[in-house]
Design brief:
about 45% strand, two-stranded antiparallel ribbon, 26 strands, about 525 residues
Length: about 525
């Protein structure tokens, strides 16, 4: 039997197995909102490395729900949607989006702010179709030095703004994210969205993280037996010329992830991605159909096409060693030659990254306590390519680790979560080899620089270039105001140390505000 026909028949059969399914909203799970301990429970057999989760993967337990203690007006403020409509199989809700944040910085003894407001609209139909759209307008004061030094005028996590006022140093624009999620059976889920995805169990991901601005994507999730296969087609954007009037140029990536829960305690997954410039020499390449097949292996296809595209491969695993304590890790390979590695000659093309870490929920039996320790490293030139439209990035920010490449990093997180309260301590210490003053030389840190400008073919080693130390220590506090809106009061104080052979600088940052949590807004890099 033709193999392609067999695959199609098999998938169609799964598609029409019409067993009941849970409502398929996407859930952004963090390590302090009370849901992660449920997801990592060995009895749930959740594929923890593929995020965001479907709520059918999380709603197996109700332990994370905040107790409903208020009614009337305060019930709406603390526990309920602002507007909600339920009739037969249709559910609709509307909630406000609020972001007000003030930051006091010792960098230049200044005060900066972020203010944003908008609306979130969502719903579901017949337990199989779910949707949600978040839209808000924002205005933020931004350090002029950061704007001038960035790859493009952008606000981290928000992406390219609509306007920049040089006199008042204000960035403003409209931010939106959303998805349409459809589950025809318990095996299949389709998602069309504008947002972020994450692969891994770590605080960081060396495969795909949620650091950059949202991007358009189509995602297919296939779950069979102990396997989950995710196929992600993305529409990314990039520009290296910091000109606000220019549109961002398109580029594409396709990402495959296969996760296997071998036992209740052991999970492994494999990853491959390809990123390419849709404009070829004739200006008409667009979306390459050679990468559209859900079963394709990118490296053979790339070789057969004589392609210059950027292919990344990776593996990861997670082990439940005891109780609710897990160890995890990732290995990413950008390019690799075993003969060059054995020679130990520092060949530039041996590009890889490694992660190792542990996480523990309720260590020592303390309810609500969470502890994480993590190590990350990436060799010089990893994720980079011959131009910005094939490097592993989106809107001026890395798609993997926010430090790019040529770094080593340690992360320690301690958090206590109880009902609506959360307290946290985080320390992130990193050393990286930064680029030097010669703009033409590439030491392997800035993934936007073409690797054709590398300083040497051999003799390359991690942390080469301008050795830079960066330490961030942060104490934070959060009070969850409304669990449906995901609205909270946040306050934090952070101390940052930056040093090179030529300078040492220490800064203090204090931030507080009331905001809706829409994305990872960490700035510890």
């Amino acid at each position: 039997m033709n193999r392609t026909f067999f695959y199609i028949a098999f998938l169609c059969g799964l598609f029409w197995i019409n067993k009941p399914v849970y409502a398929q909203h996407l859930i952004k799970v963090g390590e302090t909102n009370g849901k992660d301990s449920v997801v990592y429970n060995a009895e749930n057999l959740c594929h923890t490395a593929i995020r965001p989760f479907l709520d059918s993967e999380v709603l197996k337990s109700k332990k994370f729900d905040v107790v409903q203690t208020s009614s009337g007006f305060w019930g709406i403020v603390r526990n309920k949607n602002l507007l909600q409509f339920d009739k037969d199989s249709l559910n609709l809700f509307v909630n406000p989006l609020i972001m007000t944040e003030i930051e006091f910085s010792s960098v230049d003894n200044s005060t900066r702010f972020l203010r944003a407001a908008g609306v979130s609209v969502g719903g579901r139909f017949k337990e199989k179709l779910a949707w949600k759209v978040d839209v808000l307008g924002y205005e933020s004061e931004f350090a002029s030095s950061t704007v001038n030094n960035s790859k493009l005028i952008a606000l981290p996590h928000f992406g390219k703004p609509n306007n920049y006022d040089a006199k008042t140093n204000l960035l403003s624009g409209v931010y939106w994210q959303g998805y349409l999620s459809y589950s025809p059976s318990r095996h299949f889920n389709f998602v069309l969205g504008n947002g972020r995805n994450f692969i891994g169990d770590g605080y960081r991901s060396l495969l795909l993280s949620a650091n950059s601005a949202p991007y358009g994507y189509f995602k297919l999730n296939l779950s069979v037996w102990k396997l989950k296969y995710s196929i992600l087609y993305t529409w990314l954007r990039d520009l290296t010329n910091p000109n606000l009037s220019q549109d961002l140029a398109r580029k594409h990536a396709v990402i495959h992830t296969l996760s296997w829960n071998i036992t209740k305690k052991i999970s492994v997954y494999a990853f491959e991605s390809v990123i390419w410039n849709p404009i070829d020499s004739l200006g008409n390449r667009n979306f390459d159909v050679n990468y559209a097949s859900p079963f394709v292996f990118f490296r053979p296809v790339e070789f057969s096409l004589g392609s210059p595209d950027n292919v990344l491969l990776g593996i990861g695993s997670r082990f439940n060693i005891f109780g609710e304590t897990h160890i995890y890790g990732q290995i990413l390979i950008d390019e690799f030659a075993i003969n060059e590695l054995l020679k130990n000659n520092g060949w530039w093309g041996n590009k890889y990254a490694i992660q190792a870490g542990f996480l523990a929920h309720k260590p020592f039996g303390i309810s609500g306590l969470f502890v994480r320790g993590e190590f990350n490293m990436a060799r010089p030139f990893t994720y980079a390519h011959d131009d910005a439209f094939r490097c592993y990035s989106n809107e001026g920010e890395a798609l993997a680790h926010p430090l790019g490449a040529n770094f080593q990093e340690g992360v320690f997180i301690l958090q206590q979560h109880k009902n609506r309260w959360r307290y946290g301590l985080k320390v992130v210490a990193a050393v990286y080899g930064d680029e030097t003053g010669n703009s033409e030389d590439f030491w392997g840190h800035d993934i936007y620089k073409p690797y054709t400008n590398r300083v040497a073919e051999y003799g390359n080693d991690i942390l080469q270039g301008k050795k830079t130390k960066l330490i961030n220590a942060e104490a934070s506090f959060r009070y969850l105001i409304n669990q449906k809106w995901n609205l909270s009061f946040d306050a934090s104080i952070a101390v940052q140390h930056y040093s090179t052979d030529a300078e040492n600088r220490d800064f203090v940052f204090f931030k507080c505000g009331i905001k809706t949590s829409l994305f990872n807004s960490n700035s510890d890099y």
